[in-house]
Amino acid sequence: MLQKNRSLLLILLFLASCAVMRPGTQTGEEAHQAFINEDYQSALASYEQIIRSHEGDVTLIPDSVYRNAGLSAFYLEQTGIALNYLNNIRHSEIANAETQYALALLNRQIDNLSREITALESYVENFPEAEHIEEMRERLFETYAESKNYDKALPLWSEIEDSARKEESLLNNYFNILQELEKEGDELYTVANELLALNPDNTDALFFLASHYFYLAENRYQSEMEAYEKNRTHRQYARLLRAFEVLNADFRKSLNYFLHLYKIDPLPRYARFIGNIYLRFDDKEKADYYHRKL
Predict the structure, then answer these.
(1) Nearest to 274, CA basis, from 290, 250, 252
(2) Which of 67, 106, 204, 274 has the smallest count of CB within 10 Å of its CB?
(3) Residue 284: CB partners within 8 Å, gap ≥ 6?
(4) φ and ψ at residue 156, rounded to 5 degrees
């Protein structure tokens, strides 16, 4: 009889343990199935139930639970909850491409640039064949430009698709990076003209070309006048006249760009350049007009 009662007790204890374990297991299966079916509301509720059930020892919570709970919240546009869970596993091996994509977008929403860059870098470096690679690469380029990491941004430019490199915002970033890194050669002028082809009112490109032609003309003007003052001969005078034909053409190019800029936004610095160009053209009335704008 004692043996029979003991056997019955063991059976009851086993059934009781199953009753305790089953809800957790069932909840995990339900959460996983809901996540696969993209029923993120149900998935999140189930995953959070699992997380709450292990509040006494969070080490028992699998990283996959945090990941899927965070991704479910991400797709439900619950930013705070998504970040809370995904930040727990952002350095984990289980943080897949989908995780880094979500982290990049979520950190952008809360304006955390450094963490956004970390997620973008992880995506681009570790998942080069993933679905959102072009979007992530373009955004990484933008964040490098925004954070003034120009040396990192420049080599990334060649990896961006040709179609994206023709978009004004990205091309403008590349143009500014070239200037910040003081790159010389024809690339700056090429990009400036590409920007104006996309948008004739692009002020960065207009100011670059306006300034370029102004100083090209002004420096030659100063050089030729100094040479003539040192050697006032007919031959030197003839050379001066030929030089004036070239530099005046450059002054006219500069003037057209600055007048365009002034029409877009009548800033005093534009007025100063315009007034100085008119002085070179011996048009004192117009020079005074724009210098009064200062």
Answers:
(1) 290
(2) 204
(3) 278
(4) -70, -25
Secondary structure (3-state) at 284: helix
CATH number at residue 222: 1.25.40
DSSP assignment of 219-251 equals HHHHHHHHHHHH---HHHHHHHHHHHHHHHHHH
Helix axes 79-86, 97-109, angle to 10 degrees: 130
Would 53 be classed as within a structural domain? no
In a domain, 83, yes or no: no
The angle at the Cα of 172, spanning 212 to 116, to the nearest 5 degrees, equals 140
Tally the domains of the chain: 1
Whether 56 is in a domain gets the answer no
Q: Which two tokens stand for residue 292?
A: 């009064």
Q: Is the separation of the CB atoms in 208 and 194 below 8 Å?
A: no
- Kindly provide the residue ranges of all beta strands, DSSP E only, lying in 112-163, ordered along the sequence: none
Whole-model pTM: value is 0.83
Residue in the block written with tokens 């117009």 = 286
Q: Is residue 158 part of a domain?
A: no
- What is the domain extent for residue 271? 201-294
CB 31 within 8 A of CB 46: yes
- C-beta separation of 177 from 170 below 8 A: no
CA 196/CA 204 separation, integer angstroms: 9
- Per-position pLDDT tens, the chain of length 294: 434 444 443 333 333 333 333 334 567 889 899 999 999 999 999 999 999 998 888 888 999 999 999 999 999 999 999 999 999 999 999 999 999 999 999 999 999 999 999 999 999 999 999 999 999 999 999 999 999 999 999 999 999 999 999 999 999 999 999 999 998 889 999 999 999 999 999 999 999 999 999 999 999 989 888 888 888 888 888 888 898 899 999 999 999 999 999 999 999 999 999 999 999 999 999 999 999 988
Q: Please name the amino acid found at residue 30.
A: E
